[in-house]
Design a protein that fits this description.
Length: about 425
């Protein structure tokens, strides 16, 4: 296993290029199962989760040709529409093959993903939606068995907003007979990046009022070429790094329209930013104000930036209350931040953060993807050295995170550590 050693107190300066969005590229990769045509995906980030999705697509019989940032996929035929537990358990997003396999093969056997560090992560709404489309879904020995001989367009409203649930149902319905209306769909930009791809493939998808879509089923879909959108969560992570530890950092190709809630919150905290054609420039802020924050589905403040925001509140002036409304266990980073001298108390879905003058470097342990980035941010401003262990979590969703920080002047090294 590997760890990151970080020497705190170094000011960041320069520019960083945001990679392709993890949560866009994963559903787009799964969409290749909907056609036997060639699918060309550009701006693909080199992430553990991308590699895991490729292992799954390979097991399903997809031809793969990955050169640098360009990925060519072709599902001429599906070897066997089964997503095995040993792959799905390592990455919950594997469940995104369920919708495409139902649409293409009219059958799918996909392992239930199981919970993870941040919550139970059920897929009951995915299943309810598929049943509404006429799919017979049984749960057997930890697997979802979907028999879609009678797949047919229908209407379905999600009880809760679910990003991959929305993506799965849209992909399941693009080749269903007739029309499907989905209500209370997720609005995340990554969902619309997938919809753009599906429309390039020939799918008939229309955005209705604020959070509904209408899909007219078609006979077949063709291949596509698409450039993945930049990762707004990575961009937010670097903006917070710049606010906490910067002189100044230009976050190149950050799209401000995808991050209005985060940018608003940073401005409320007194962080100075410039919106430039090439991206967003952020200036280091010595007097970060403590400001309350709540996570919500898009366009609200993203849960995937909650841990990073908390790291910034640890050194803010004053006390802030952070409310995590999306996942029931997304405060795993709190205990580790406390080891660095943070003053945080958790009461249910709320964390009360009292800003301290200085954090102290310490050995800490990553528990999930975004928690690991928040520990790195805290270590950048702590007094002395820190060591963040189990950074395989970080490598799941950030491309060359330590290398990008080193280029900004951070004193950060990747080291081997025994298991
Ligand atoms: C997606 O996960 C993202 N992953 C997550 O990013 C992100 O945190 C999450 O959306 C919320 O924005 C990908 O897109 C690959 P949900 P997803 O279904 O789709 C409940 C990261 O760090 N729910 O929107 O799994 C669920 O328990 C990752 O990049 C049900 O109850 O999340 C949660 O409380 C972490 N039943 C809430 O809805 C269901 O059937 C939102 O979950 C589905 C979800």
């Amino acid at each position: 296993m590997e760890a990151l050693v970080i020497e705190g107190g170094v000011r960041l300066k320069g520019e960083v290029l945001v990679s392709g969005a993890k949560n866009a590229v994963l559903p787009i990769m799964a969409a290749c199962l909907l056609t036997d045509g060639e699918c060309v995906i550009r701006n693909v980030p080199d992430l553990r989760d991308v590699r895991t999705m490729l292992k799954l697509l390979d097991a399903l019989g997809v031809d793969i040709d990955w050169r640098g940032r360009e990925l060519r996929l072709r599902a001429k035929r599906i070897k066997e529409p089964v997503a095995p537990y040993d792959l799905v358990k390592t990455m919950r997003a594997s469940v995104l093959v369920l919708g495409p396999l139902v649409a293409r093969e009219r059958f799918a056997k996909v392992s239930l993903p199981g919970g993870c560090a941040i919550g139970e992560r059920p897929i009951d709404l995915h299943i309810k939606g598929l049943r509404q489309l006429g799919v017979e879904v049984d749960l057997e020995k930890g697997y979802v068995i979907a028999d879609a001989k009678r797949l047919e367009g229908s209407i379905f409203a999600f009880d809760k907003v679910t990003v991959t649930g929305t993506e799965n149902l849209i992909m399941a319905s693009v080749m269903a007979k007739g029309e499907t209306i989905l209500e209370n769909v997720a609005q995340e930009p990554e969902v619309w990046d997938l919809v753009e791809v599906l429309k390039k493939m020939g799918a008939k998808i229309e955005k209705l009022d604020v959070n509904a879509v209408r899909i007219e089923g078609v006979e077949r879909l063709s291949g596509f070429e698409h450039e993945v959108m930049p990762d707004r969560i990575e961009a937010a992570t670097f903006l917070i790094a710049g606010a906490m530890a910067g002189e100044e950092v230009l976050v190149r190709n950050a799209i401000k329209e995808h991050m209005v809630a985060v940018l608003t919150k940073l401005s409320e905290c007194g962080v100075r930013m410039e919106f430039l054609p090439e991206g967003i420039k952020v200036y280091g802020c010595d007097r970060i104000k403590a400001v309350d924050m709540e996570t919500f589905p898009y366009p609200g403040f993203p849960t995937d930036v909650q841990a990073q925001y908390m790291a910034m509140m640890c050194i803010a002036k004053g006390t802030s209350v952070i409310t995590e409304n999306i996942f029931e266990r997304r405060f795993m980073h709190v205990a580790e931040l406390r080891r660095m001298g943070a003053d945080i108390t958790v009461e249910g879905k709320r964390a009360v953060v009292r800003g301290v003058k200085k954090l102290k470097g310490a050995p800490v342990m990553a528990s999930d993807l975004r928690a690991s980035s928040s520990l790195v941010l805290a270590a950048l401003v702590a007094e002395g050295n820190s060591k963040v262990s189990r950074i395989y979590h970080l490598d799941r969703g950030y491309e060359k995170f330590d290398e990008k920080l080193r280029k900004l002047g951070a004193r950060i090294w990747r080291v081997k550590e025994d298991a």
